[in-house]
Design a protein that fits this description.
4% strand, 90 residues, 40% helix, mainly alpha, 3 helices
Length: 90
């Protein structure tokens, strides 16, 4: 994904020239706001659906809420029958 989800024709052309695809998210946890574990879980569960790409952050500060929320989200989604895969393959 491009930083901040910002892209235009130039970014798409550069990515294409490198044989890369732009992949955007369909749901945002907004975990960077650090709203609390339950808020992150609620937001993500409301956006989860087959084929969804859910955005989480792993940098830019303290991420204990994200880690705790992910443990819950992954458990609930698995219990609901979801599976997980990678978007990129070499």
């Amino acid at each position: 994904r491009p930083p901040y989800g910002a892209y235009d024709d130039r970014v798409q052309a550069i990515a294409g020239g490198q044989k890369l695809s732009l992949v955007m998210w369909t749901g945002d946890s907004l975990d960077w706001e650090r709203p609390g574990v339950s808020a992150i879980v609620s937001r993500v569960m409301a956006q989860a659906r087959p084929g969804a790409v859910l955005l989480f952050h792993d940098a830019g500060g303290e991420r204990s809420q994200t880690v705790a929320a992910l443990r819950i989200v992954l458990e609930r989604l698995r219990a609901d029958g979801y599976s997980f895969g990678t978007l990129c393959r070499d």
